[in-house]
Amino acid sequence: MAKLTLPAEEWMYRGHAACPGCGPALAMRLLLKGLGPRTILAIPACCWTVIATPFPTTALAVAVLDNPIESTGASLAGLRAAADALGLADVTVAGFAGDGGTADIGLQALSGMLERRTDAIFVMYDNEGYMNTGVQRSGATPQGAWTTTTPVAGTRRGKREPKKEIMEVVLAHHPSYAATANPAFPEDLVRKAERARAARGPRFLHILAPCPPGWRFSSEETIALGRLATETGLFPLYEVEDGVYRITRPYGTLKPVDEYVRAQGRFRHWTDAEIRELGAQARAGWERLCRRERETAAVARPPPIPLTA
């Protein structure tokens, strides 16, 4: 395997309060390598509020604004206006919210920020549940997953509803740049953060963030599970710039979903038939994404992101 080529600078301090194997912590560390020190973060109530800002300490070497869980998009608009008024054109304004603070409680403010063309980056780290408050289901929780509010007992078999397609919601607002990312593929994540920083207008990053206690897997398996999520087609890596799709981690053949599902306690109740159905859904989603890439191939494309690992 080729050696990783990542920026050496660290904008996240050691000794933070994240759980062992925390996917959101890895996501933040890599994101800041791409965004750099001239960044102002807006962080709502979520796991990262606990990790980053318990007074009087901080885990980050950049400016941070704590905001209510529903208002990250509004906070980004205010921070961008303030930075512009002060002549801080080189400052990147970014939000870093969980799936609850993005796809659920924060969706209205996100929609407003995108529709008003706010010059900022909204980052959703997706650990697929309200993990900070005890593993409750969110709109981004996969269908059939166990959580404390979607139990498995008797006829109850986890969450009834499918995972919310947040990228589809975001792309309906025509952002200047949007991408999925995964800390298991660090160079891809950093390059997308760099591309988002260089773009202007509303931008969105959807980062998968495996959660050992919430997903019920051993903390040393975070990277392995993250890789499987992408290699099975359940969380493909792609970017959309001015409506043009580009898959940044292509696969000729997807891996079966079995290993990914069986490694997580939240899916322990699943039958073989349910796992086969998930595999069929993953393949259908991957084929749909490949079609979109082909359909937009005639449009001028952005330069490719080099991947060496």
SSE topology sketch:
Elements: H1 23-35, E1 39-44, H2 47-52, E2 63-67, H3 72-85, E3 92-98, H4 100-104, H5 107-115, E4 121-126, E5 152-153, E6 156-157, H6 166-171, E7 177-181, H7 186-198, E8 203-208, H8 212-215, H9 222-231, E9 238-241, E10 244-247, H10 258-262, H11 272-295
Parallel strand pairs: 1-2, 1-3, 3-4, 4-8, 7-8
Antiparallel strand pairs: 5-6, 7-9, 9-10
Helix pairs in contact: 1-7, 3-5
Describe this structure in words.
This protein has 309 residues and is an alpha/beta fold. It has one domain (23-295): Rossmann fold (3-Layer(aba) Sandwich). 35% of the residues lie in helices and 15% in strands. The chain contains eleven helices and ten strands. The protein has helices spanning 23-35, 47-52, 72-85, 100-104, 107-115, 166-171, 186-198, 212-215, 222-231, 258-262, 272-295, and strands at 39-44, 63-67, 92-98, 121-126, 152-153, 156-157, 177-181, 203-208, 238-241, 244-247. The strands form two sheets. Strands 2-1-3-4-8-7-9-10 form an eight-stranded mixed beta sheet, sandwiched between helices. A two-stranded antiparallel ribbon has the order 5-6. β1 (39-44), α2 (47-52) and β2 (63-67) form a beta-alpha-beta unit.
Residue fraction in strands: 15-25%
Helix content: 25-40%
Order of helices and strands: HEHEHEHHEEEHEHEHHEEHH
Give the averaged pLDDT, no decimals. Answer: 94
In the CATH hierarchy, what is the architecture at level 2? Answer: 3-Layer(aba) Sandwich
